[in-house]
Amino acid sequence: MDVWVKLNASTTGKDKLFRFVQYLSRLVWHNLESRKNLRDTVARLKIIESSFSTFRKLLRLGKSLEVLHGALRTLHLPDTVLRITLTLSRIYQFLFLLADHIIWFGRAGLWEIDKEKWSKVSNKFWLGSIILNLLRDAYEILTITKRRMRCLGPPVCVSSGMLGIREVCKAVPALQPVAEFAEEHRDVFFDSVKNLCDIWIPLTHLGHTKLSAGTVGFLGSVSSLAGLVAVLDPLAKLAPA
After folding, report:
1. For the chain, which terminal residue's Cβ has fewer other Cβ atoms within 10 angstroms, N or C?
2. Average pLDDT in the 32-38 region?
3. If DSSP states are collapsed to H, E and C, what string results for the chain?
4. Percent of the chain beyond pLDDT 90?
5. What is the mean pLDDT of the chain?
6. CA 235 to CA 224: how far, in whole Å?
7. What Gene Ontology terms for biological process does this UniProt record contain (predicted)?
């Protein structure tokens, strides 16, 4: 019950939940598409995917201004790398959302637009934002590694929800360092997972990679789950964001 309250309490929580349903629908219809007796189901799932995509664009109307205002705040961060990556990322995100708003107006029939053109513009700005976010993640990981090498790392708080990761990874010794990192720095871990999954989506839409609709659906679903964790668990949200 508390989970639903947290998700419904913010637009971000709702967006992540609807995004998960959107990409999960794509994953499912792609796996069912080859079955001729399930054509009606596939058609319904495609409608669900399209409906949630359009509804999410409606939810994001006006968010571009909020993101732009956030860029003004990150300009004053003392850390140079964070100041540059976060500010530029927010500018790219602002431009992505601006193009996203235009696409919604086109879908709603309020404005005659070249949807394919604006979709490419939107994905280019989204890709730029993700690349900058990944650079920030790499910087955070490098900072943590240096701190560990100097034995200056502060004590960490491991949540009960993360304790199972190490148990699962015991069967695969090579994954134990990843499990330990996820337990101790889950904010950086989940943000990195989200961005590493997300980057392939605009790359595919722009034609730089050729992933199937099912693969895109899977990556989008994993990314959405990582985003949901950050909404539900404050310690899993990377700050400053």
Report:
1. N
2. 89
3. CHHHHHHHCCHHHHHHHHHHHHHHHHHHHHHHCCCHHHHHHHHHHHHHHHHHHHHHHHHCCCHHHHHHHHHHHHCCCCCHHHHHHHHHHHHHHHHHHHHHHHHHHHHCCCCCCCHHHHHHHHHHHHHHHHHHHHHHHHHHHHHHHHHHHCCCCCCCCCCHHHHHHHHHHCCCHHHHHHHHHHHHCHHHHHHHHHHHHHCHHHHHHCCCCCCCHHHHHHHHHHHHHHHHHHHHCHHHCCCCC
4. 63
5. 87
6. 17
7. peroxisome fission
Q: What is the pLDDT, as a whole number, of residue 174?
A: 64
User: How many CA atoms lie within 13 Å of 48's alpha carbon, on the beta-carbon side?
Assistant: 18
Average pLDDT over residues 42-68: 92
Domain boundaries defined on the chain: 1-60+184-240, 64-153
Tokens of 27: 């994953």
* Alpha carbon distance 178, 210 (integer Å): 28
Higher local confidence (pLDDT), 83 or 155:
83
The two tokens of residue 52 are 């949630």
pLDDT classification of 153: cutoffs 50, 70, 90: very low
Instruction: Quote the tokens at residue 46.
Output: 């495609």
